[in-house]
Request: fold
Amino acid sequence: MSDVEINYDAGRMAASYERNDLYESDFPNFVKQGSYLCLSDTIIQRYRYCQKTFDELLKIYAQILSVTHPSQVTPSYIPGDGDWLMGRPTELYEYRLLSENWVYQMRRTIDSLVQLSALHANQIGELSVKIEPDGIGRLLGKDGNKFSIYPIFLGSERWLHSDDTDFLGILNDLFNSMKHCVAHEESHPLFCRECPTVVSFYSRHNDFRDGYKYHNHNAYHLMMGFQDCVARVLKNLCISTDSK
Reply:
């Protein structure tokens, strides 16, 4: 029994999704120096990879829709049907595992933005000291607002844009669920024919005494939320840099 179902809403229709891109000009000027440049280049390429992975996810979803029921999708190996099937996951599992990779890459992109912001905020020119915070989980955790870059990611009452759709919180929970929660595996057989979804059953620290959260997200909304979040964080980073 699940206690809560969570559906991410990007704040606009899924049909409004469009691919976009990220460029060096979207970053503040300080990234053109040393290790900042390397990190920003990686963020740009990872951002593009997230969109490429989303495209692949949609292709597999379309293939699954072409059969009457997901259970009919090609299994790993059927004796007598040829060696080409050997070692291949079912398309449904391929879809689920690719969605895990997609969520990881989105989370890793956000973590890299946190690290880039922390490097600049603490005026770290070379990697010889401890960098804090080193990921979005630290900012969302207890006392996360003690860090100077907290408003860049979560906003401020004055002039930095906030995370109104709670994309960062949902992405963090979804990532942790896929990485740690034993119940996540039970979500793999679930399939929605109305739209591509990313699903997971989550209970923090695998403590199911109080039930669990059922993450059930339209993949288009997650993709748009990711696009919006990266754009918002970079805009905040540019604003905070210019104000110093």
Residues 34-65 form the longest helix (32 residues).
